[in-house]
Amino acid sequence: MATRDQDIASIIKQQILEFGTRVTMIDIGTVVEVGDGLVHIHGLAGVKYNELLLFPQGVMGMALNLAEDSVGAVILGDCSQIKEGDEAHSTGRILEVPVGEALLGRVLNPLGQPLDDKGPIKADKTRPMEQVAPNVVLRLPVSTPVHTGIKAIDSIIPIGRGQRELIIGDRSTGKSAIALDTIISQKGGNLICIYVAIGQKAAKVAQVVATLESHGAMEHTIVVSATSSEPASLQYLAPYAGCAIGEEFMSRGKDALIIYDDLSKHAWAYRQISLLLRRPPGREAYPGDIFYLHSRLLERAAKLVPEYGGGSLTALPIVETQLGDIAAYIPTNVISITDGQIYLETDLFNAGIRPAINVGLSVSRVGGAAQSKAMRKVAGRLKLEHAQYRELSAFTQFGTADLDKATKVQLERGKRITEVLKQSQYSPMPLNQEVMILYAVTNGYLDEVPEERIASFENGFFKFMELNHPEIGKGIRDSSDLTPETEEALKAAIREFKQSGVTYA
């Protein structure tokens, strides 16, 4: 009997000692090779793709290559602290990034760590970087415009909320300028902007942040930065981190805009990682899944049905071409994924036509569905006349002496349309001003204004309308429509301005 009591007592003691503890199994591997921001690990049989790994000194990594007896991982920190023989522990977690309103106005790296000396980011929620894109049932057609404030884009190549519109062109043709103008144009609006800098110089990122701050645009903007001095692993993760931040706003029923600047450097970073992981190289040494790299990212842009939040995420990826070759590997890949492209041409840029948009090669596959009623009414005629001018100018570049009067009129109007579509950087225009000046040029009110004085006419006209007829601009802005009454008032105001004796010098 005493023995039995002793057995029961020992069991109770054991249970007390083990109270609150749990037996867990941790997958552990050994580092066999380290270098260039990557490690090869022997073991870790149960690790999953994209799972976080823990190394000594608290350094984290991410599993990317899962071979039969080894794992290839990228290091998300200081690679010099890891050496051969170190242990690698699986964590069972995948990479997440902080999300929410707390990020507005901040500059952070792809891991959610602040880079702007404004203290820690106090986000109350995180979100996985990689997420499956919404399926067709969860999506609505694109119907609400993203107002960029750039006349040429809003009228000819409109962008809608939930769309993916590629900005493509050679180096230094104004790709980033279009993206920044679009962000600045959202000041006071309801569109949250995320600017993802991939592989840019740190000085350029600082310049972008300073520009946005000087125009009061950082209040509605989040900057995710992985500069050229950062490891390729962070450059690879940057767009996915930015997309996760944008998806959080979309799931809350808000509208967000994300700019990837640029996906060429993202592809270079992924190529570097893949070659170091000894994956088989394909065309231009890119790995076989390079298309999937960008498609799984850009497909996450969508306009959701009301039952799933009703928000939207609009993507403006940027791709750099070499000598205007839009048929290269990465440009054609991204063109096939997106809903249109804005093509910027070096020759136009050098000729002083800025933004240097080639209207012939640029297209929006959403079209007029992403325009306000007022813009749709003036843009249809503008597109037609601009296209006809481009055709005629190609035929008449060697001389216009023997052209008939109608053709000459068409050429002159085309020149004035080209002048009107020119726009200075960091000066996005409100919708009502865009509609008024485009209406004036397409209806022939600028035909007798000398070509070199179009810009002066435009500035004087806007000042005149603001001082003498503010109700016309207000009517267009409030209703987003050009009603017959507003149109008649606009015609009378244009005639009044032209008869007022104001010089356009």
Total beta-strand segments:
16
Number of helices: 15
Question: Could you give a short account of the major beta sheet?
Answer: 8 strands, mixed
Please give the share of residues in helix: 25-40%
- What class would the helix/strand composition place it in? alpha/beta
Determine the strand fraction and express it as a percent band. Answer: 15-25%
Overall outline:
elongated
Name the average pLDDT. Answer: 91
What is the terminal separation in angstroms? 115 Å
The stretches of 5 or more residues where confidence is low (pLDDT under 50) are none
Radius of gyration: 28 Å
Name the strands of the widest sheet in spatial order: 8-12-11-13-14-10-15-16
Brief summary of the model shown:
With 505 residues, this protein is an alpha/beta fold. It has 15 helices and 16 strands.
Task: Report on the architecture of this protein.
- The chain has 15 helices and 16 strands.
- With 505 residues, the protein is an alpha/beta fold.
- The strands form three sheets. An eight-stranded mixed beta sheet has the order 8-12-11-13-14-10-15-16, sandwiched between helices.
- A hairpin with a 5-residue loop joins strand 3 (51-54) and strand 4 (60-66).
- Helix 10 (373-395) packs across helix 11 (405-421), helix 10 (373-395) packs across helix 12 (431-442) and helix 11 (405-421) packs antiparallel against helix 12.
- It is elongated and about 115 Å long.
- The model has no long low-confidence stretch (mean pLDDT 91).
